[in-house]
């Protein structure tokens, strides 16, 4: 067959590439329009082919000089020193769309080349090499290298004959010419392919003519060299873009990848497989991901370390070595966990040489000491590592850091440094009592659930139904166990790919009985109206996860160590304690002293939201399919057949189709008739029987075994976890210590009041007293047969339909309220003879909450009323007066009266107070008309007991007295803007009579109404006599937290509907009118508030518009990030059940939510900072202190001390340049980096300068607060000038004062 001359091949290569220029350029523009990247220049070089003559097109890896097979790196990879690959993308974040564009571009390039060859008739013919193997002429393999030192080229093998050498010299000469062309300027060495040919002394005329044509083609090729250089340059930049668009590889990849949902899913899957003993499945799964380059990008060093720990336990050093090879192939670098596993394995096999591992650690810059301070140990791992090290270094001892770092915030400097006068409170328990309480709490948490008695009265006729339900539960239990067992067999034998995630290991973590108990427990809590499939699945999945975490801690043998440390820690809290340090410091020291054995802080990963929901959906599917009952179980008249007790249906909520699980009426009737006498809860629902474990880090604290997050967040969002991990430990000390202080407050039940509430609860309840009635009091749902409805008009049918909907809604609401009250009262009744504690955590803004969800002091009036301090203190000389003032505050009366006026009023109604205490249900019932009736009754009982005691000053009181903030959000805004008028209205400035901002706004709105009524405005005339403090209070309270006019109108509309005499036809017009007047009134009273809100909103808008989320740091050093992102909908399919999950995808921020939420969230963070400061300094003063956000509680005798601390810390907080520091943080965070485009950077810089002006204004007004004459002068100026001009007036006045 005729061979194609190589000059034609060269011509084809040069001629065909320009046709691809347009394709390359278009694709590059399309790619660069989506993502702005920083293109870094790298050299495109050629790799020399192996002797076998096989190029890249062969699909095989070339062999190195030692004959070992190596991988041909992909685009964006580099041959590392050890043969591994680096420069890979960071998992899912490496934008899979970019890889698809690259593959598509490459495929299109190959397709066009093939078509052009066919069109021109220049189809390449395969050429045999000297060894008989096939390759295409001109074949070369390109690679991207980030190291200039790697310079190789892949060309066709040279001939060994002399004639071929002469031809090679001619080709080399032409190659030199090409190198001098503009191609060389692009730093892309192009080498022509060398073919075979025979030399002749005198060419024939035909050959001479062919040579002339070849020379002419070569001249054209030189003319095309520039175009070729541009094409190669574009290819080079395209490949560089593919590399630089990926995040830079870090040593342990934790920052870049560990928090992705995919990586967490893989990690959780491996941990589940290992825990249930399915090592082969875990190993196959990891290898399956490793062998596929696209999935290898999802792996990080932590995932390889999981398997290394497994092989270390088995003492398999060969497997450990293979894992190190896999890590090197993945382009990762071993970390401390990797070497820890290797040393553990060697510790179990002392015959191996440890020197190589320790030497390699030293070369990698990993000190041996850090193994024991940074690694998490399970079971005997620490001992095995020490044994391995001692074989090389017999005298080695791990160093323990005993130096306590302190928080750097100036706000708590005195708290940590000046401890000479500190009086840390102790508990009224001996050491033995605290240790016994710890043992009881540990048993409850190890059981995961607790069953308590219900307070609902039992009826005699329900015994048969209760036995019937118990028998049926046994039938369901047996059916579910069999179904679960069959389902596991099917999942275990499925022929899915090794890289596919499966639910099988998650179904093997617990005993089959445990899964079934969880399902039946959820059935008891299912409301008659049904529950969302998403909510039900999430509850089931979370229960499995919590139980798994508790079993994991037991498996890791950390319970014994926890018991030992806690028993010593209890010495600090006992009444006869001699220690005088903070709980966190004591626990940290004890943990350092008992460093041997397993670590208390586990490294288990919280399951991703999708894993939790998918597992829960699988369990729901089992329940729907296999829980059945005979249709005639309650009525023998029906035909007997098995029917499901649960149904999966769809309903619409907010115009979205939502999956719903609804119980059959037979099940609902059986549960209502049975009236079960017990309730089963998860252990974390109950208060703790011992003081909580102190928070020592963001990952450890609160419950003994139950997993608890220090910072709550929305589903799927975990950016805050990244920020907390980046924080220095010392920066979080103040936050951790405040949580510990709140959690160490001991409580007990007010038994006399609880008995009264339970009696009303079992006697049809009372809506007036906020005690929900039973379901039997719910309205009957109207039912109409079709014969009657046939005679109705369309309007009548619509009316009947609305009646049915409203009746069903009312029944559902009553059931929810009844069950909520039942849970709270049953828990309170179970704890009636106990002393208990509430562990605390916080939300992403820093606001603190008790961890038990149902029963806590943040609950309703009923819940707060039955809670009192476990520790009692004498009233002292002023305690009784504070009890009386507190009583008047609870009634909602005398809001505008001074403290002396309120005390006088309390003394004038002592008869009503004593009557309420003695005859709460049959007397005058004065307490029932209060704003907080149950707390009022409890206070009446406390006052009655005190005044009837021999000496009220020595009466031991357990009652908490509240000090509530005066619209706390407005207080912070007034302090930030140094707004004199606003500060006066919220009691920041001393006044003879306490100011009430709500009454002030209502009074000003009334003045606006009178003015408009005189002008003849109809709605203003209708509102005469209806504008009260209660109508405007909620809107005034929430406007500072970002409520809009629309939301404010709805709030006022609700208040107006509660007024019986107000004409209902004017509700909409009246609410629309009033919300405008309320906003206008607030704008006049708080001039600086709106300016600060606008600045915060505009800053957040610019930041989120650039694609970043809004972050800031509180004055106490707590990092905060707003978790508002554009949600992503994902489908979960389990058998026939399908569920759409909308969760935080951690992608682009939601601009609207980010900007609207920033002002209220920022104020919330300041509010929480003030509360934490007050908690710390109250703890230092020996006070019992708890809070409900801006409402602080303490004993009556210590109210004056708490008020002093509260005011001092508020002044200290706002003496800091808060707005200036926020402005500096935003400028540094978003302008010193490439986070914002140029136009947005300039805008944000301008906005932050406005913040400086606001701070200047505030500083001047702060100075005037201490100079009354100038303050009055400035107030008069403020009434003469518009708000925008007033700033310039203040600047002029400041110059005069200087």
TrEMBL record:
One of its GO terms (cellular component) is mitochondrial DNA-directed RNA polymerase complex. One of its GO terms (molecular function) is DNA-directed RNA polymerase activity. Residues 439-744 form the DNA-directed RNA polymerase N-terminal domain. Its EC number is 2.7.7.6. It is an enzyme of class 2 (transferase). It is found in: Mitochondrion. Gene3D superfamilies: 1.10.287.280, 5' to 3' exonuclease, C-terminal subdomain, DNA-directed RNA polymerase, N-terminal domain. It comes from the Eukaryota. PPR repeats lie at residues 300-334. The chain crosses the membrane at residues 7-24. It catalyses: RNA(n) + a ribonucleoside 5'-triphosphate = RNA(n+1) + diphosphate. DNA-dependent RNA polymerase catalyzes the transcription of mitochondrial DNA into RNA using the four ribonucleoside triphosphates as substrates. Component of the mitochondrial transcription initiation complex, composed at least of TFB2M, TFAM and POLRMT that is required for basal transcription of mitochondrial DNA. In this complex, TFAM recruits POLRMT to a specific promoter whereas TFB2M induces structural changes in POLRMT to enable promoter opening and trapping of the DNA non-template strand. Has DNA primase activity. This is DNA-directed RNA polymerase. It comes from Oncorhynchus mykiss.
């Amino acid at each position: 067959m005729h061979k194609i001359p190589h000059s034609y091949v060269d011509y084809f290569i040069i001629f065909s590439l320009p046709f691809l220029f347009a394709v390359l350029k278009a694709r590059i523009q399309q790619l660069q329009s989506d993502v702005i990247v920083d293109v870094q220049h790298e050299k495109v070089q050629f790799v020399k082919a192996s002797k076998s003559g096989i190029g890249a097109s062969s699909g095989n890896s070339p062999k190195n000089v030692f004959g070992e097979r190596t991988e041909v790196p992909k685009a964006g990879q580099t041959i590392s020193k050890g043969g591994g690959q680096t420069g890979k993308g960071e998992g899912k974040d490496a934008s899979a769309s970019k890889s698809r564009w690259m593959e598509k571009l490459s495929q299109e390039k190959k397709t066009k080349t093939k078509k052009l060859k066919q069109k021109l008739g220049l189809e390449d013919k395969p050429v045999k090499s000297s060894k008989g193997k096939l390759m295409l002429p001109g074949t070369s393999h390109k690679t991207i290298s980030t190291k200039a030192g790697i310079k190789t080229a892949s060309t066709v093998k040279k001939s060994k004959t002399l004639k071929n050498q002469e031809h090679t010299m001619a080709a080399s000469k032409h190659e030199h010419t090409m190198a001098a062309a503009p191609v060389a300027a692009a730093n892309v060495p192009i080498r022509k392919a060398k073919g075979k040919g025979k030399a002749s002394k005198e060419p024939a005329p035909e050959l001479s003519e062919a040579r002339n044509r070849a020379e002419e083609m070569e001249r054209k090729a030189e003319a095309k060299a520039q175009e070729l250089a541009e094409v190669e340059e574009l290819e080079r930049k395209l490949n560089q873009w593919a590399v630089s668009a990926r995040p830079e590889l870090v040593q342990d990849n934790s920052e870049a990848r560990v928090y992705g949902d995919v990586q967490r899913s893989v990690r959780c899957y491996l941990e589940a497989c290992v825990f249930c003993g399915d090592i082969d499945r875990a190993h196959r799964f990891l290898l399956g991901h490793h062998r596929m380059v696209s999935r290898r990008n999802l792996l990080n060093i932590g995932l390889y370390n999981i398997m290394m720990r497994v092989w270390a336990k088995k003492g398999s050093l060969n497997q450990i070595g293979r894992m190190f090879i896999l890590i090197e192939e993945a382009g990762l670098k071993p970390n401390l966990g990797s070497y820890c596993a290797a040393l553990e394995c060697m510790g179990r096999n002392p015959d191996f040489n440890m020197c190589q591992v320790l030497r390699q650690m030293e070369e990698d810059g990993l000190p041996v000491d850090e193994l024991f301070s940074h690694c998490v140990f399970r079971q005997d791992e620490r001992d095995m590592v020490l044994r391995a090290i001692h074989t090389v270094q017999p005298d080695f001892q791990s160093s323990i850091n005993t130096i306590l770092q302190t928080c750097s915030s100036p706000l708590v400097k005195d708290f940590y440094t000046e401890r000479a006068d500190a009086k840390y409170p102790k508990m009224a328990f001996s050491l033995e009592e605290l240790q016994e309480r710890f043992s009881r709490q540990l048993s409850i948490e190890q059981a995961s659930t607790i069953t308590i008695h219900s307070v609902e009265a039992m009826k005699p006729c329900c015994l048969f139904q209760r036995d019937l339900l118990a028998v049926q539960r046994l039938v369901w239990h047996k059916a579910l166990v069999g179904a679960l067992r069959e389902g596991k067999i099917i999942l275990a034998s499925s022929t899915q790919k090794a890289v596919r995630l499966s639910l099988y290991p998650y179904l093997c973590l617990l005993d089959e009985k445990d899964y079934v108990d969880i399902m039946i427990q959820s059935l008891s809590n299912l409301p008659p109206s049904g529950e969302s499939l998403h909510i039900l699945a999430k509850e089931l999945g979370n229960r499995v996860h919590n139980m798994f975490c508790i079993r994991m801690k037991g498996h890791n043998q950390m319970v014994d160590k926890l018991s030992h440390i806690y028993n010593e820690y209890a010495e600090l809290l006992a009444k006869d304690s001699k220690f005088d340090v903070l709980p966190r410091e004591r626990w940290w020291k004890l943990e350092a002293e008992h460093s041997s054995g397993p670590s208390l802080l586990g490294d288990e990963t919280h399951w991703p939201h999708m894993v939790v929901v998918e597992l829960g959906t699988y369990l729901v599917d089992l329940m729907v399919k296999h829980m059945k009952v005979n249709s005639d179980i309650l009525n023998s008249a029906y035909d007997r057949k098995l029917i499901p007790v649960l149904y999966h249906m769809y309903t619409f909520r907010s115009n979205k189709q939502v999956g719903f699980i609804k119980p059959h009426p037979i099940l609902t009737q059986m549960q209502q008739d049975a009236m079960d006498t017990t309730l089963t809860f998860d252990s974390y629902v109950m208060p703790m029987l011992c003081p909580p474990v102190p928070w020592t880090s963001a990952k450890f604290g609160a419950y003994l075994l139950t997993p608890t997050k220090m910072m709550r967040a929305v589903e799927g969002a975990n950016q805050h976890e990244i920020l907390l991990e980046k924080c220095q430990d010392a920066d979080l000390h103040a936050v951790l210590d405040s949580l510990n202080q709140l959690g160490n407050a001991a409580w007990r039940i007010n038994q006399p009041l609880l008995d009264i509430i339970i009696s009303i609860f079992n006697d049809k309840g009372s809506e007036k007293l906020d005690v929900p009635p039973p379901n039997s009091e719910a309205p009957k749902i109207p039912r109409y047969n079709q014969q009657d409805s046939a005679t109705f008009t369309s309007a009548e049918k619509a009316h009947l339909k609305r009646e049915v909907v409203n009746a069903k809604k009312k029944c559902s609401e009553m059931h929810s309220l009844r069950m909520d009250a039942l849970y709270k009262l049953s828990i309170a009744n179970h704890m009636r003879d106990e002393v208990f504690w509430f562990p605390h955590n916080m939300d992403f803004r820093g606001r603190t909450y008790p961890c038990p969800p149902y029963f806590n002091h943040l609950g309703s009036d009923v819940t707060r009323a039955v809670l009192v301090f476990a520790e009692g203190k004498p009233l002292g000389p002023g305690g009784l007066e504070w009890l009386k003032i507190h009583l008047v505050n609870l009634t909602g009366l005398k809001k505008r009266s001074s403290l002396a006026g309120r005390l006088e009023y309390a003394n004038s109604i002592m008869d009503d107070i004593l009557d309420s205490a003695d005859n709460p249900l049959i007397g005058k019932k004065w307490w029932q008309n209060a704003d907080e009736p149950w707390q009022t009754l409890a206070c009446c009982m406390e006052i009655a007991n005190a005044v009837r005691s021999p000496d009220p000053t020595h009466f031991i009181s357990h009652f908490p007295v509240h000090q509530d903030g005066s619209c706390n959000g407005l207080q912070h805004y007034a302090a930030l803007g140094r707004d004199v008028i606003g500060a006066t209205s919220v009691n920041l400035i001393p006044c003879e009579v306490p100011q009430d901002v709500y009454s002030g706004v209502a009074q000003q709105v009334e003045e606006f109404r009178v003015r408009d009524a005189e002008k003849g405005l109809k709605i203003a005339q209708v509102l005469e006599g209806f504008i009260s403090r209660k109508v405007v209070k909620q809107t005034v309270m929430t406007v500072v937290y970002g409520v809009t006019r629309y939301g404010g109108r709805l709030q006022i509309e609700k208040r107006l509907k509660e007024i019986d005499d107000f004409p209902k036809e004017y509700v909409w017009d009246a609410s629309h009118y009033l919300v405008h007047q309320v906003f206008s009134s607030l704008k006049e009273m708080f001039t600086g508030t709106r300016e600060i809100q606008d600045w915060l909103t505009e800053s957040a808008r610019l930041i989120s518009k650039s694609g970043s989320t809004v972050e800031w740091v509180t004055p106490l050093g707590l990092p905060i990030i707003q978790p508002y992102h554009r949600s992503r909908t994902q489908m979960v399919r389990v058998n026939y059940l399908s569920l759409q999950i909308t969760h935080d995808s951690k992608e682009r921020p939601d601009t609207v939510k980010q900007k609207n939420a920033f002002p209220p969230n920022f104020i919330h963070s300041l509010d929480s900072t003030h509360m934490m400061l007050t908690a710390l300094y109250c703890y230092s003063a020996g006070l019992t202190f708890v809070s409900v956000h801006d409402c602080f509680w303490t004993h009556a005798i210590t109210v004056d001390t708490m008020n002093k601390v509260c005011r001092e810390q508020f002044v200290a907080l706002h003496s800091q340049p808060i707005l200036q520091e926020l402005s500096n943080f935003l400028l540094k965070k978003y302008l010193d980096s490439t986070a914002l485009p140029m136009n947005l950077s300039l805008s944000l810089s301008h906005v932050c300068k406005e913040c400086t002006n606001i701070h200047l204004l505030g500083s001047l007004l702060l100075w005037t607060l201490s100079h009354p004459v100038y303050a009055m002068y400035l107030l008069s100026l403020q009434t003469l000038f518009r708000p925008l001009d007033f700033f310039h007036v203040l600047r002029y006045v400041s110059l005069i004062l200087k």
